[in-house]
Design goal:
The complex is a heterodimer of chains A (368) and B (122).
Chain A: E1 6-7, H1 11-16, E2 20-24, E3 27-32, H2 37-46, E4 49-52, E5 57-63, H3 66-73, E6 86-92, E7 98-108, E8 111-116, H4 121-131, E9 136-140, E10 145-151, H5 155-161, E11 175-180, E12 183-188, E13 197-203, H6 207-215, E14 221-222, H7 225-235, H8 251-259, H9 271-276, E15 281-288, E16 299-302, E17 305-316, E18 321-329, E19 339-344, E20 347-354
Parallel strand pairs in A: 1-3, 4-14
Antiparallel strand pairs in A: 2-3, 4-10, 5-8, 5-9, 6-7, 7-8, 10-13, 11-12, 12-13, 15-18, 15-20, 16-17, 16-19, 17-18, 19-20
Helix pairs in contact in A: 2-7
Chain B: E1 3-5, E2 10-15, E3 18-23, H1 25-31, E4 34-37, E5 45-46, E6 51-57, E7 61-65, E8 70-75, H2 78-81, H3 85-88, E9 96-99, E10 110-111, H4 112-120
Antiparallel strand pairs in B: 1-2, 1-10, 2-3, 3-9, 4-6, 5-8, 6-7, 8-9
Classes of the chains: A alpha+beta (368), B alpha+beta (122).
Chain lengths: 368, 122
């Protein structure tokens, strides 16, 4: 392996149970275990899978004025976020481009927990530090914090079988503190699969024992980043680096409604640009004819002319066809029933716009 | 029937002048879960080393090469609906049959023992 790759505390555990390891965002990570991506995908949709997500980053921001400062630093409002609630948010540059997409957990009146993408930990930390006053302490807890995702319709039953009170389990996009295997854990009902699921945060020193204990629970199987990607693509969830980067705004990525730009005059870093400049492109879901996947950077052609670009795509195991996310140029009108040509390896296939999520039977949020 | 392997991980079995072709266990394992197999069309004429078709897995796209010259006589259309059969039993799942193959076409190929040694070097 490449010696410069970072390892989670579980790298040896993955190798020991037959994982295929690959580089991802600078980390040495399991893309799949022995059963393979398709089996892991299906098992997550139908039962429950455990994912090692220790590579992702966690910060704690606490101190006088932290809510107001984060409110001005991030694209979605933080000041009105209640204790116990998790909120998907964006760290933008002045031009409105996405430095990172992240989840903010309100821990108290003047304390927040922030979960960021693995490849953006250093950038985010420097940028957030600049935006927070001296009265706010910002700690990078990434190395000391383990993050496991327990995802699938049986995930709540696994937690209750381990002694957690079913009534105390957090609601969708909420968090709570628990003792599990004798350890303090922050557990949120969040995830990246579209299924009922939880994200567990705890002391990384106990990562191996918690991993073994959870895999020892009846019905729990490991799943790798390969299944994580097919699961998130079927939901149309963006992946930082594919669907979003510093030259893309959250409005372009389809999150304009969350920002409430017209409904308030709230100012935050990037808000002037977002209010002044119309989007140059729009992120859309695409369904391809057949099973062949279109990959990042593939042009979308309409009558021989490029009108967009695929940002990521895959064969969708739950649907039996290939799906993709793509940016369509905002400069030209594109009919909703347009039939695109997509050039794949030695073939051209037809593709159409489709609503996201592609997978509409997810169990993540019963109210959705 | 004797089975022969290419360095690009296809296998063939030659019966008279008809070759039956598939991909090796090693190739199937390397690709991971196969989600699509382009079925070669009957009548397609190939030279040894030509691209015969494309096989795609969740994480990879790979060409299948014909180790022999001839004309495709039949494709295994079962693979259209069940490409995963190539993972389940690659050494017994054929992709296509090629007619008009010369009897000395296997000369440059490896037998099972030689191929087993070859993949150890990879």
């Amino acid at each position: 392996m490449d010696e410069t790759l970072l390892k989670t505390p579980l790298a040896d555990e993955h190798v020991a149970i037959g994982a295929r390891m690959v580089p991802f965002a600078g980390w040495f990570m399991p893309v799949q275990y022995k059963e393979g991506i398709l089996a892991e995908h299906k098992y997550t949709r139908e039962h429950v899978s455990l994912f090692d997500i220790c590579h992702m980053g966690e910060f704690k921001a606490a101190g006088s004025g932290v809510a107001e400062a984060l409110d001005a630093a991030l694209a979605r409002s933080v000041a009105d976020q209640k204790d116990g609630v998790c909120r998907y948010n964006f760290l933008l540059n002045e031009a409105g481009g996405v430095i990172d997409d992240l989840i903010v957990y309100r821990m108290g009146a003047e304390e927040f927990f922030i979960v960021v993408n693995a490849a953006r930990i250093e950038v985010d930390f420097v940028e957030l530090r600049k935006r927070l006053p001296a009265s706010v302490r910002l700690d990078n807890l990434s190395g000391a914090t383990a993050k496991f995702d327990l995802q699938g319709p049986d995930s709540a039953a696994v937690l209750t079988s381990l002694g957690l009170d079913a009534a105390a389990l957090p609601k969708y996009y909420h968090w709570a503190k628990f003792k599990l295997f004798g350890l303090d854990m922050l557990i949120s009902r969040t995830g990246y699969t579209g299924e009922l699921g939880f994200e567990l945060y705890f002391d990384a020193a106990h990562a191996v024992e918690v991993w073994r204990n959870l895999l020892a629970c009846p019905g729990v199987k490991p799943a790798g980043l390969g299944a994580r990607d097919t699961l998130r693509l079927e939901m149309g969830y963006p992946l930082y680096g594919d669907e979003m980067d510093e030259s893309t705004t959250p409005v372009e990525a389809g999150f304009g409604a969350l920002l409430k730009l017209d409904k308030s005059d709230r100012a935050f870093v990037g808000s002037k640009s977002l209010r002044a400049k119309p989007p140059k492109k729009h992120l859309r879901g695409i369904v391809l004819e057949g099973r062949r996947a279109a990959h990042t950077g593939t042009p979308l052609l309409l009558d021989g002319k490029q009108v967009g670009t695929i940002t990521s795509g895959t064969f969708a195991p739950s649907l039996g066809c290939a799906v993709a996310m793509a940016y369509l140029d905002a400069s030209q009108p594109i009919p909703e029933d347009a039939v695109f040509d997509v050039e794949l390896h030695r073939a051209v296939v037809k593709a159409k716009l489709a609503p996201v999520p592609f997978w509409t039977h997810g169990t993540a949020n019963p109210k959705a | 029937m004797a089975k022969y392997y290419s360095e690009s991980h296809e296998w063939i079995e030659l019966d008279g002048d008809t070759a039956t072709l598939g991909i090796s266990q090693y190739a199937a394992d390397s690709l991971g879960d196969i989600t699509y197999v382009e079925i070669p069309a009957p009548g397609k004429v190939v030279a040894a080393g030509d691209i015969l078709c494309t096989v795609e897995s969740v994480k990879a796209v790979s060409d299948v090469y014909s180790p022999v010259a001839g004309t495709v006589s039949e494709g295994n259309s079962d693979l259209e609906a069940d490409p995963g059969a190539l993972n389940a039993d690659p050494e017994n799942t054929w992709i296509c049959k090629i007619d008009g193959v010369k009897t000395d076409a296997t000369d440059g190929l490896m037998d099972a023992a030689a191929y087993a040694k070859f993949i150890e070097t990879l």
